[in-house]
Amino acid sequence: MRRETPRILHVTESMGGGTAGAIVEFVRSTPQFEHHLLFRRRAGSDVPVRHEDLFAGSRDAGGGPVRLARALREMLPAVAPRIVHLHSTWAGLVGRTVIPAGVRSATGPAILFTPHCFSFERTDVPPSASRLLRAAERAVAASTDLAVCVSPREADLAAELGIPAVVVPNTTRARTARPDRRPDRRGRDGSIVTVGRVGPQKDPGFLLRVKALLAGHAGVTWTWVGGGDARGEAALRAAGVRVTGWRSPAEVRHHLAAADVYLHTAAWEGCPLSLLEAAASGLPLVARSIPALDSLGLDPDLGTAEAVAAELGTVLATGRPGRPRLQEAFAARHTPQAQAAALADAYAQVLGPIPAPPLSRVG
After folding, report:
1. Could you read off the pLDDT of 262-288 as tens digits, one per residue?
2. 189-332 CATH fold
3. Is the pTM of the predicted complex or chain greater than 0.85?
4. Which of 246, 236, 214 is nearest to 312 (CA)?
């Protein structure tokens, strides 16, 4: 008897930017499954991630959470998935409300949740809002069979909510060829690039504080690849930072190839693909220390603008970060092969043994 290929229904309200890229990599890493997608496009993401050829079926729910819930109810009997994999905050809340633990039958789908950074980690909302967001996550925790987390920090937070958790590393298959460079030992010339949405999470204000501390490095150019908040973009441009607006993945890789150092200034995170793409290209990383990135093994001593500015000065002068082995280990833990193995183990936890993937389709 021929064994039916297990079906996975991925659900997200944020099909754009890093979340979309992460979902695409999850699907590429597990070709032994039949993948379906229910999504809403991420507001303000002008360059959607190409995904249509990876899924057996996909549906754009449009609208808000109510339409997402309605579309999920309709897709469940049509797709009959073995797993419903919820990605990001609103999809996580909607999905675990539509399919609560108390009414899910023994033969119903397993519910997996990947936060891509818990919403209560936000630092741009008052403490009361953070407490409300945490309470909402706790209320639906019992409806989660497994949290598939992209960092040890995320897994620890899931465990605090009472959710079984595993860590599956994010990855990228993008590779950027960078020319050999001879750094200016005076530390006066070089190019610094940042990738992401201009907004509170990526914290352009932190970048501006760092830039002010490096004011003596007159020949350094600063580029923010991405777009977002108009006021934030204006502040960056006024300080001499080039803001490109949203660019295609190929154009982002071009900016990485042209840079001397990648700067990451986010105030809260999951495991950003931009860091992985920069690491995969061999670009030195200077990443602000926050709990998520510390848990991924990046430098924990870069928590202040002053420390980040000093590290940038080291890279511009030498072409290497102060602790290169941390970055080498970070890149080694986030390969496509590592993700494929960890994700297969995670899915097997809720499904039991599954067929091995075709070797030619992973990596």
Report:
1. 999 999 999 999 999 999 888 999 999
2. Rossmann fold (3.40.50)
3. yes
4. 214
